[in-house]
Fold each of these.
Amino acid sequence: MSAVEAGKRVAYYKGCLASLSAKELDTSTQALAPRVGLELVELEAVTCCGAGDIHEAEPDYYLHLNARILAYAEAAGCDTLLTVCNVCTLNLRQANFMLSGDEVLRDRVNRNLGAVGVPPYGGEVEVRHLLWEIAEGEGYEKLKQAAHKGLKGLKVAPFYGCQILRPSKIMGFEDPDRPWSLERIIEACGGQAIDYPAKIKCCGFPIIQAREETALGELIQPVEQAMEAGADVMVTPCPLCHLSLDAWQQKLEAATGRSFGMPILHLSQLVGVAAGLAESELKFKRHIVDPRPALEQLEV
Amino acid sequence: MQVALKIWRYDSSSGERALREYEVDAPEEATLLDCLDLVKDRVDGTLAYRKSCRMMICGSCGMRLDGAAVLACKVRMYDMAEAGHVPTISAMGNLPIVKDLVVDMAPFWQKFKAMKPYLQPGYERPEDDREYRIAQERMNVVHKEALCINCGCCVSECNAMESDPEFLGPQALAKGMRFVGDPRDGATVERLEEYSGEHGIWECTRCFFCNERCPKGVDPRDAIAKLGAEAIRNGIDRDMGAKHAKWFVRSSETTGWLRETELVPKTQGVVSSVKQMKFAMGLIAHNKAGLAFPPHVARDVNEARNLHKLVREQDRTGALGHVQGEKALARLGHGYQPGRDPFGPGSFRRPYLPGEDGDAPAAAGGDMGMGSRAQADVTPGEEPTRRRGAES
């Protein structure tokens, strides 16, 4: 590999899942970042974004918690906060718009941040998901070079999940009904993007604990449709969708008496395969449905 | 201009379905509803659809355009006709179809009525014996909810309702919030108890389709979040959804990060968690779950704890906390950001006109429309999803 040039410096917010049950998302993102022109500045003092749960239960605390994350990203000298999770992206972007669009509110929040020893937030950070960084512009050009190993026509079903598309006025990156970013990345990596209606729908994860049956009724749609459309694997930019699609797939099988065996990749893993990352970085053995058999055809 | 439409026709008495194409000559300012009128007047008088006010007030003409629920009177056809796009028009989702584009709204009104959508006076008479006055600040809490015209566009796309048809859904719950948030209403606690049932507040799957589709800016998901906040503020938190939410609060101020391993017992209780043991063991075998030891603790987590204490003292709890962000969020244009080329790469609502962009991924479709190319052609009336996971 040629020497990696200095990339775009971004504050890296990995969120809860990439720190815990989806460590493979963190290792693959860290390994991939320099190859797509990103220099990750890890934030040590940040907490959970609240995952929509704190937003619902205690909205004022949610706002402060996220303001604190944004403030630390700004204090690290970064104008971009990079996320690898849909839910983190929505929560942080929403708080960011609330703070940057309402000075009175920002002043109040900053006074509170100051009172507990957190630097004030000036409202100058943009929250962006890894997906957006590599779907267009410089990142996309780098991606095309990095993905030299290619996916050799692997049939990949993109699954966006909800909170990277909607509400579109907060996300604002692409048409929430006809998104294109994952397809563009899949094709740049040499894969074949599979089209199916449920790719923009819900995986059920937010209620998978509290209303499992309803959640499974949602989850079956993307899994079943991707399978019927002939996908070898599915890819998602969200670790919560990943957990739902990968781990709860066995509950879906138990409930329906059918066998799916659909491997689910994180976005960073899919690009990582095309970029030739090592298994120690991709960590496929952490998946419930092992993707390695489906990827074996690429080794030829 | 020439406007072409593909319309899903449906006859419930014979069960016959067909996708028919129509073309009419319409004025440039014509809406979808105008074009349907032209089809009915000049081409096929048997076409059925609902309409009344033609100005986004009555909420009658909800239907799907390329798979997405819209008010037919709000959509102008000029851009689509110019681009040569032939949209597919079908009946709304999640409600039974009566004929063509007309759905049976009975289940919708049933849930609406279940919310008791009227004030149940509980306020004390003002001392000066004059009218009951409310500060603007208090009414801001229900400003968006009061805009609802009961058109059903949110319900049409509700992902949780597709899976559980009994879910109260975005329209009914937003209506509920309109009364929970009204200071004149005297049944707040009873309402919150009722709305917190099995098919209530905590069954919302946060897919945000309702916010996306609502033609009036009600943002039903935000209303549901307000209900959740009000329920917790009033101590109505027995539901697993409420316990789940509270565990995130607790985690954030103790370790900073979600305490994943304890989430299941904290949400579902110990007995139910034991039943999940087999599933959990499978996850543990793949390092997906298990005890993180020593626990992963964020640096300076005491700051989060102190922030929590501080904001609690300032008492912007419940719906008031949600409303304080609405002003800033209302300033956001719908979709793309200012300064961005609305049709450039990466922008919102990129039309992908045929042959326009060699770089466009083939799978993303060749013409303007909603969802995937396949989505608009899902035959209405046929089960679009599997009801509940248990049935195959």
Amino acid sequence: MASQPEIEPLDSSTALPIHIGGLTKTYGDLYALDSVDLEIKSGEFLTLLGPSGSGKTTLLMAIAGFNRPDSGSIRFGEAEMILTPPHRREVGMVFQSYALFPHMSVAENIAFPLKLRGIGTEECAERVAEALATVQLSDLGERGIDQLSGGQKQRVALARAFVFRPRILLMDEPLSALDKKLREQMQIELKHLHRQLGVTTVYVTHDQREALTMSDRIAVINRGKLAQVDTPEAIYNHPANSFVADFIGESTMLPLTRGESGQLCFRNHLITANPANDTADNWLLVIRPERLFITEEDKEDLEQTIVFEGMVQESVFQGETAFALIAIDDQYNLSVRFGTGSTSQKNAMRPGDRVSVGLHREDVVIIPWDC
Amino acid sequence: MNHVVNMSDATPQSLHVAELKVREVRDQWTLLSLATPAILIIVLVILVPVGWLFYLSFVGSDGQPSLEHYRKMIEYKSYARVFMTTFQVSILTTLICILIGYPLAYFLALLPKRWTGIFMLAVLLPFWTSLLVRTYAWLVLLQKNGLVNEFAIHIGLWDSPVKLVHNMTGTLIGMAHIMLPFLVLPLYGSMKKIDRDLMYAAANLGASPIKAFWQVYFPLSLSGMVAGSLIVFVLCLGFYVTPAVLGGGRVVMVATQITAILENQFNWGAASALGVVLLVATLIVLYVAARLFKFDAALFGKN
């Protein structure tokens, strides 16, 4: 990627922030978007993450202007866009299906938005060449669309979306059709390109790992509502509710009971003596599998560590990590994930073994139980 | 340790070769046998009569091989007129079908799924009614005191009955009606295949709806339109019933002329020669269209 020509980045004053206010879209009785408020900062990479049917694509399509919300406001910078037809919104978009015009060559596809803007043949050719170089496809300008591989189509779609220098770039699951290796490579390239272009980017995916990899901030969306909007680290380490905890990464959730003096416990383990806020009656303990470790009870300082006793149900090798399911009573299992290095003492774990599992108190995350 | 699989006797390449080949060949023959009835019918019903026709056209009235039928066709102006009329009617009908059919197909392609069925039914309905019935229905509607004339006079479009039938107008109306589905169906098919995202992409890149239509939608629907137009055009070339009934003897096309020759002169040779020329003309049109639109694909089912 070092050989890539640096294209002129937009300065932050030309990238546009997006303000979304009270955006509602219904399909019959179904609220696809339920009064969504979202501020997308100028130049940031924001990912809309949610399961299928959560409303993430509906929100993206509303920003692009392809569907008509029932009510609300979408502003690009200061300009209200809700009534502006899509062809006057000046946003670039990469479609899940790529949506490359099959009757045009690669170069013609990329030149399409430039010609519509009345840019002269010479400058047009220059900018197409520049865009092709940026996505590393310089030699393929004359190719037909059906002669391209999936990854190449992806790059052409990308080049076509930014070649007319939009100040906002939208991407609708652009990598979902690629195989895993290529997808991971493209994630890094997209991230790099975003840094180069400096354009405000809204990215839709249902793949939480992709969201964590690429985003400045993630907006987790569920049933037409925003469940949490924050940085990847904050979303992963401090999920705001059980939906986010469940959807992002793997987690085990244990219901907590309140002791006499307000402390929260699971069975006979004290989880936290004074919960930070008292907004909810019921709380869940969220445990990430990789934060657990195999230990021995008498080795740990119980001030620092919570130790669960359990029996190994299943233990599987998955390459870079291994995974075990450990029953701590007849109702709850803990998922434990650990490295597979040769020194790992857990390699010998067999179903039926009794083990102790430790969790550092600083890794304790509790969330309100919204059932 | 177990990375070498032992093959005790035979080398891997030679195992079951003959038996597998036999089964492969047997599968191919089974498949072919399914097509046998159709192939037989084509040979018996099409190739043999057409071959006979071809042969007859080169036999003179004295029973000797001769080109007299073809020479007559060049000598007599009436033949040229018949061919002119045939091509004129075919081209006009095709154009009318495109003008009416394109918006109709576009409308059908954009309809929500649950409505498509009903409107498609309306397009297909004529297929289920006898050609003759539909043609005579037009005769009734278009005649001097027919529904169309009375209605037009009633709302003041024209003052006295206009001659709508037994002429070119009537022929074109009837032909266009009958041919419309042949254009709409392939066109609808190609429009349905146009990804909705392509139109979104065009809009997103800055194309107004009109520009998006002409630069993206229309070029992509062209293959269906050319396929439909060719079907209509070729069907028109050999059409008999509608021009005969609605043309009232004034619109003489090749098929009508062939009937006339057979009924009046019982001249198989002359009729055959006309048929051969029509067949050759049709093939030339198809060939030129295929070259012009790079269109062998849609005609022969390639993608």
Amino acid sequence: MNFNIFRMSMYQSRKSYMAWLITIPLLVAFGMAFYPAISSSLSDLVGLFENPMMKGILGLFAMGPEQLNSLPGFYITYASIYVILMGGIFAALTIISDLGGELRDKTTEFLLTRPVTRRTVIVTKWFAAVCRVFGMTLVLFVVTIMSFSVFSKDAAMIYFEEDKALSFVEAELGESPEKISRVWTLDEDFFKGWMMHTITSLMESDPGALEELDVDPSVLEDLISLLEEDPESLFDDLLTHPETYMDMFNIPGDQKDLFIESINERKLEFETLKKRYVSDSSFHYEMFTMTPGYFMRLVKTSDQKALLIEQYPNIEKEVNKLIGPYSISRLMVLHIYLFLFMTTIVSLATGLSVGLKDPKNISSLGIGMVLVMYFISTLLKVSPVTAAWSWISPFGLIDQGLTGGEYTIKAFNVGLLLIESLGFLGISLVLFEKKDL
Amino acid sequence: MKALEITGLTKFYGDIRGVENLSLDVDEGEFFGFIGPNGAGKSTTIRALLGLIKSDLGKAKILGLDHIKDQTEIMKQIGYLPSEVNLYGQLSGLEFLKYNARFYGRVDMNRIQQLADWFEFDLSRPIDALSFGNRKKIGIIQALLHSPKFLIMDEPTGGLDPLMQAKFFELLQEENRKGTTIFFSSHTLSEVQRYCQRVAVIRQGQILEVSSVDKLRQKQLKKVRVSLEDSNIKTIDTGVFMNELNIKGLYELKRLQSGAFTFDFDGNYPQLFKLLSEWPVKTFTMEEPALEEIFMHYYKKEGEA
């Protein structure tokens, strides 16, 4: 490291660096400004995603309606196209315009007749570029959080680390079951929905049971919607015209008494359940312990989240970890990936600058290199078989699963990015040591 | 201690020879000229010495230090002026010189200003906007700035006007008096003759001879052109004239279409003038021949045309 060279590298790149430092973050802010419009008209867009061809194309960019609905999902869809690609191009050009420029303009002759070693020159230039890349990451991180906080008011909630966080939420909530009804507004309307949830999940887990009934699917659909809208009247109808339904389900006539008895049983069961549901808050706790995740997912707006925290101030920290429009720690993880990715590109472009015999077209070659790697990683995403090879391109090593369950620093991705960075730097040093100027 | 010691330096660019088995010594405090025609291997030698290109064979010591292993230490003590000065175009002269000075320690503004004044150089202009000669000036300033013990200059006068050349050599002589060793390459015999104590002559990648300037001074080949009075030209027997001119130290006598005669001369001038005085000479011009011609004359290898 030579501070004099470092300072000159920073001084000479200051103007173009400022331009990049404004452009890329502006691109993020500008892109995020589309979020409210797109998330509110998402239902119109669903049709677009059903078109198989569009689905394929949009799939390349990790796009899907669920993705676009949440703030980080929208961001990562957008970011993977613009921010990461532009970041890669910036990283390549910031070292090429410095080191490649010196080689092109033959000012390396000046540098190497100063009291510095060739290694010092490369390492210093590399380090200066990595510092610029770090500054870019920092600015991007801050601008991303700022634009997230601007648009987070109406953003959909997403759930982080459910398995870890749920247990203590469960423990805390159990002690005051009546608050559960308040937080999730468990009224009579909700009861119907919950019944439907129970019924459909029952049916989904045992589709054979329905097939054995040998019922016309459209008739069954009508029945289910009736059950959803007004369960009581369905039971009444079953009891007043049992023959119609027995016909429908192919139940022999001599089993009429048995049929009525079983309907009565179900009706009683339903009424007891409903009574308990409406009057007995400890029942909500029972339900909650059965499917806590289901309840947690009912928190869909910031207002509901605020209510949850108000009711249970003790678990504010956990709730913040569990639910939110976005997570700062996840964004940080993404930006650590982004920084390592850009560092890898800096190392690659260092090698390109040093290794090229004729450095005249080095800038376009650098951009070309980044675009080719981007194109490769995009192509590899097409099928799951090729996706296993996506690590070939540094683009494929940025883990973009921002909205997924486990989103942390992955040893394989980070390790490979680090090895590539240092490896290409090492190759550059060897190449430069042998180079005739 | 020798300021420079080269033994068996060899560098090939693929099949093309740069220099071959070149050996050379320069004493400390010497003003040393390195002369040869274009493409002889002057720059290759200098660039290999400085480690800018990697030599294939051979060793070199600069100020007693190994030219590759102790490069950083050497660079602290030498000043180098490349034949083509490539510098940071966006920087102003002052910004560049300050940058350069920081490699050697503190920035001495007085020294910068002093050198700039000497060469009448405008420090505020960006390097991109400078003419070729002005770029050469800033190249010279950067080489001298840290008062090096040893100055290595590759064709330093190219692009400088005669006035500046004179000022440049004046400064070099002053530095040399203070003890600085000066080694510079050139393809102009006269400037080497005027300032150097010793000269190495290089041709086709090999040293032809290393001699004192006094010895070289004897090799004062000049191009001479003589024309005789028009009215007499027809009556003069040119054959007789050319025959009479055939004296020691006169070569390549030719008669041009215009009737004038040209020849190369390094013989006895009184003898030549005495001879010419008997003829109706109308014009007599003498000029410095191109270095290549001198080389063709003095260093022609056997078997070469």
